Amino acid sequence: MKEYLIRPISEAWVHSIKDSIKMTPTSSVTRLPVLLDPIQITSMEDFSPEILENDNVKLITLGGNHLTTAIQELLHEERQNSMFDCLREIDIELFIGLTVTEGKFIASIHNQKSTTKEVLFQEKIAVCREIYNIYGETEENWKELVAASLGYLLGQTVKKDSISTILAPASYDTTNYELAARIFDDYRQSHPDKSFPQLLFRRLLGISEKCRTPYLSRSIGTNGLKQARQVQKDICTENLKNLFVRELEVADWAEAEDIYPDETIELMEFADMEVTTKKVPIRILDFLKKVKTGQSQDQENEKEMCRNNYKNRWKNILNQQHTC
Fold first, then answer.
1. In what side-by-side order are the strands of the sheet with 32-36?
2. Cβ contact 56:36 at 8 Å
3. Is there a single domain that holds both residue 79 and residue 143?
4. Helical packing angle, 142-154 and 121-131, nearest 10°
5. Chain segment 59-98, per-residue pLDDT in tens
């Protein structure tokens, strides 16, 4: 069952395990944790050894899914080769009546004892998405469940406040999550065992679903860094506009452009500077102060030109009088 998986299967890791087994085909010495389907068998009272001989009873592999997948593929590929028959039997540790959270905990303990692949950023999001799909719409504390699951997966304490870059994309609406999944799928083709850079999804925190969509769409087939920079630039520009509107006490940006057409154009010269609600560079504050007092840089230049013209005109008059 998918809800018991702590991460998706990596084909690259399966391939690596297969290559290792092919070198020296031997019976697995790893004891795998296996859960009897809790829907069919809920407690020890329902269990008897004969149940394991019933093909209709499902066994859920809690740990070692990459190993079992590799073995299954090898047995199919080498079905005519008796050297691989030793792989047909695996020692298991049987569990009964575990919850999803308990099952993930057992799987994580198994992974910590075994040689496992690094848990990639995109795999963490996939795990969280599964939990969100199950509990997100009805369970208020789904983020706590995600933190617990990631903690089991990573073998460490994880607090929900420290994983916002994972929680946010895991709870995207259907359109945006499908775009994110496409980004990860494309990236996996060229970087099968490498985490997707987190910067894009960090930059998209706090942005509405509708506004996220174009950035995600343009990030397909890339590592997302270009769009991450674009997101940051657009956020700074929007913050700059909001600051101008607030400081000049106008209704909105459209009104600001009507009343201050030259100044709003001049304002965009600061678009490359980082502007937040709490941090505004001194140069921008000085500019806004000049605009508020009717002394933008253009106006200063015009006044300076007027003063120079005035001086020159009087010089010419005085020179003419002196000549006369």
1. 59-61, 32-36, 92-95
2. no
3. no
4. 140
5. 888 877 888 888 888 888 888 888 788 888 878 888 888 8
What pLDDT, in 10s, does the model give residues 140-185? 678 887 887 777 666 678 888 899 999 999 999 999 999 999 999 9
Q: Looking at the structure, tell me whether residues 111 and 127 fall in a common domain.
A: no
Q: What single letter denotes the amino acid at residue 290? A: K
Task: Provide the residue range defining the domain that includes 256.
Answer: 232-293
pTM for the full predicted model:
0.60
Report d(CA 255, CA 265) in Å as an integer.
13
Of 232, 311, 312, 320, the C-alpha closest to 271 is 232
State the SS3 of 257-290. HHHCHHHHHHHHHHCCCCCCCCCCCHHHHHHHHH
In sequence order, what DSSP letters do the residues of 136-186 get, joined into one string?
A: ITT-TTHHHHHHHHHHHHHTS---GGG-HHHHHHHT--HHHHHHHHHHHHH
Residue with tokens 């997302």: 224
Q: Which residue has the tokens 């329902």?
A: 46
Interatomic CA distance for residues 7 and 118, integer angstroms: 11
| Total residues found in the chain within this entry | 324
Number of domains in the chain: 4
Q: Within this chain, do residues 273 and 207 fall inside the same structural domain, yes or no?
A: no
